[in-house]
């Protein structure tokens, strides 16, 4: 009897693992508006993938779309439009790139500036490809949290790229209300298109990722390339915009080209790898446009007593809930999406307790702020003294009732998911050698109040 139960449980476990969905995303940063052969590379990749029924997401630069149009490449535009269309910035590498222009700006001014600079490219893509881009990804490592607010305003729900500034368990996550596919670590798998001896290695890495994700109930794997890589040996922008250099269109230098043989080998190695992915049982190839349907819609059903207990010790992500979700639940919000605070504030309250009446006034004021701005306040006032948001959250969670409320200090554990090295996180051949953006990472940490896993449906 016991053995039968055990076997049953084992079979159930195995079938759960077998059914765990593994999704595969293939995307191309389609950006080279200098070298016309890159247009043909994009056409060939789109056509070859269509022939084997593999959908990809082409994240297109605004200037690239305009150049395709002015070169009369309707063949390329049509072939790409049969796949999914994403967005990859308006001008990509023409200085200043996003992280550079976002660096001196705060949360809201940065969002306005991203909207102003990048909005035209979105509108051009819509006009040229007849569809709103499904996702955005930054040029190089030129990331900034302000972009998320602008993306929501532009109607782009997904951020799909690879970078190190923010990440959660090497799987997709929600951040500032945007669905992020970012920082997938070992779940980003690429085949070396220059070395046939490494093809087996990449397939093995892919198989390992599939097995690992199945064992943990499913997940996402991604592969990315640039069409231009299949025809050139150096990047179009490294030739013209290295380390922040400006080159005007009339002076553009063309990158070094691959030989015909080298190019053919690159296509072959790539397609062999994609065919391996397609043949792998239990793997579903999807595009960025499908992503929001594949994950759970964020819910606000927070276990309030549990949050009270946990928040008093440490402010952290709990199951599918961000720290912001939990704070909102403590404040009595039924469902709301907010951004993190725009700045970091220190507590000035010196006393160890706050009189109940004053505390309730502060609490009401915090609720009013969130209602008005759809953003968490950086601090909450109690008369002429204030608590930082973290200290307020911990104090609120620890409130036992009574005539006074004991002041607690909040530990923002969720901030550990944001990169700490302001130089390495923004390292990119197009940023100046000395470029670093500690302020963008700090703003990113504040926005990590909203960070939470994107769970599979
Ligand atoms: Zn790019």
Structural features, described:
The protein is an alpha/beta fold. The protein has 16 helices and 14 strands. It has helices at residues 2-19, 37-51, 62-70, 74-81, 98-102, 107-129, 146-153, 199-215, 236-241, 260-279, 291-294, 304-311, 323-330, 356-373, 389-398, 438-447; strands at residues 22-30, 57-60, 84-87, 135-136, 158-160, 173-175, 178-181, 219-225, 283-286, 353-355, 379-382, 385-388, 404-406, 452-453. The strands form four sheets. Strands 1, 2, 3, 8 and 9 form a five-stranded parallel beta sheet that branches. Strands 4-5-7-6-14 form a five-stranded mixed beta sheet. The chain has a two-stranded antiparallel ribbon with strand order 10-13. A hairpin with a 2-residue loop joins strand 11 (379-382) and strand 12 (385-388). Helix 2 (37-51) packs parallel to helix 4 (74-81). The mean pLDDT is 95. Bound molecules: zinc ion (ZN). Residues 29, 31, 88, 92, 139 line the site of zinc ion (ZN). Zinc ion binds at residues 29, 31, 88, 92, 139.
Give the gist of this structure.
This protein is of the alpha/beta class and 457 residues long. The chain contains 16 helices and 14 strands. It has helices at residues 2-19, 37-51, 62-70, 74-81, 98-102, 107-129, 146-153, 199-215, 236-241, 260-279, 291-294, 304-311, 323-330, 356-373, 389-398, 438-447; strands at residues 22-30, 57-60, 84-87, 135-136, 158-160, 173-175, 178-181, 219-225, 283-286, 353-355, 379-382, 385-388, 404-406, 452-453.
């Amino acid at each position: 009897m016991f053995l039968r139960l055990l076997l049953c449980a084992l079979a159930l476990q195995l079938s759960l693992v077998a059914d765990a969905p593994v999704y595969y995303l293939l995307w191309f940063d389609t950006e080279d508006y200098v070298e016309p052969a890159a247009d043909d590379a994009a056409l060939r990749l789109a056509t070859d993938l269509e022939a084997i029924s593999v959908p990809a997401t082409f994240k297109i630069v605004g200037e690239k779309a305009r150049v395709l149009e002015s070169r009369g490449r309707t063949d390329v535009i049509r072939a790409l439009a049969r796949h999914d269309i994403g967005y990859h910035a308006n001008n990509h590498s023409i200085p200043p790139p996003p992280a550079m222009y976002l660096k001196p700006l705060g949360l809201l001014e940065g969002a306005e500036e991203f909207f102003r600079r990048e909005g035209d490219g979105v509108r051009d893509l819509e006009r040229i490809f007849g569809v709103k881009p499904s996702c955005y990804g930054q040029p190089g490592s030129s990331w900034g949290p302000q972009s998320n607010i602008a993306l929501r305003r532009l109607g782009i729900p997904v951020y799909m790229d690879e970078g190190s500034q923010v990440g959660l368990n090497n799987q997709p996550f929600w951040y500032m209300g945007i669905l992020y596919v970012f920082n997938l670590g070992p779940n980003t798998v690429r085949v070396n298109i220059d070395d046939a001896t490494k093809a087996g290695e990449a397939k093995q890495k892919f198989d390992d990722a599939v097995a690992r994700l199945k064992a943990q109930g499913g997940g996402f794997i991604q592969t990315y390339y640039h069409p231009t890589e299949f025809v050139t040996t150096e990047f179009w922008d490294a030739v013209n915009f290295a380390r922040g250099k400006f080159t005007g269109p009339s002076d553009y230098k063309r990158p070094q080209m691959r030989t015909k043989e080298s190019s053919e080998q690159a296509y072959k190695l790539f397609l062999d790898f994609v065919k391996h992915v397609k043949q792998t049982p239990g793997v579903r190839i999807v595009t960025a446009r499908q992503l929001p349907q594949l994950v759970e819609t964020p819910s606000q059903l927070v276990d309030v007593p549990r949050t009270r207990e946990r928040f008093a010790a440490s402010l952290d992500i709990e199951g599918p809930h961000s720290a912001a979700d939990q704070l909102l639940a403590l404040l009595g919000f039924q469902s709301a999406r907010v951004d993190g605070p725009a700045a970091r504030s220190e507590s000035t309250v010196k006393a160890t307790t706050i009189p109940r009446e004053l505390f309730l006034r502060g609490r009401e004021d915090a609720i009013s702020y969130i209602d008005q701005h759809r953003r968490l306040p950086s601090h909450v006032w109690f008369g002429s003294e204030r608590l930082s948001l973290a200290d307020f959250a911990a104090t609120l969670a620890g409130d036992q009732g009574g005539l006074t409320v004991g002041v607690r200090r909040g530990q923002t554990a969720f901030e550990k998911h944001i990169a700490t090295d302001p130089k390495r996180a923004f390292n990119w051949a197009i940023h100046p050698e000395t470029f670093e953006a500690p302020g963008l990472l700090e703003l990113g940490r504040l926005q990590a109040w909203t960070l939470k896993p994107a769970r599979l449906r």
